[in-house]
Write a structure and sequence with these properties.
Length: 261
Amino acid sequence: MVNRFDGKVILITGAGSGLGQASALQVAKEGAKLSLVDLNASSLQETKNKVLEVVPNAEVLLITANVSDEKEVENYINKTVKKFKKIDGFFNNAGIEGKQSLTEDFDIDEFQKVVNVNLNGVFYGLKSVLKVMREQGFGSIVNTASVGGIRGLGNQSGYAASKHGVVGLTRNSGIEYGQYGISIKAIAPGAIMTPMVEGSLRQIDSEKWEEAGKQFVETNPMKRFGKPEEVAYLVAFLLSDQANFINATVIPIDGGQSYKY
């Protein structure tokens, strides 16, 4: 197979686990140089170790950052450009779920925390990387939205609101920047078995969360959870030159969950 990312630099936030880690592994296998960002330094190192197990000569830059802090976002962009001189692709992925409750009971500080990471963090990433990509005259961006960004999710007002915002940013920025050779799209994962989804299930039932998961997947047409590597295959395609004409849109990867309602 042709290595779609030979000579290309891919920047990934939320790279310490879940979709970010799986996507880092996938694009590294296809030749990418990696700039990996996460709040958790030990998780980042774990991802790097996994990458080097499968691609021993991979170039990997690790940057610890809080994506809800605009200055730290500007810093991870600047460090990546300083190291690699360009950014070909950006998986704008870092996010949190937050606590679950009815909207009337949703704590305002919790709401703001979720929005600060999931929406503001994506916006700060876009704002900084688009300056680099417009000057380059090329680039591909994949934002992580959610099925919660294209329909409602009970007891998750903060999460759903933030992911609806990511969808809006994706469509709007794609319209603005397509003329500069930059394609911007979002993925809308459903229930993918990641640490974040496990955490969500534990909020439903801390002791019998696996049983809660079995009940949950019964609502999915495919009757199972998705796998992080399945999302990584999509992310790699969307970051590649093969997907340059896909712009200002959102692509669900959810086993049909978002179309059932």
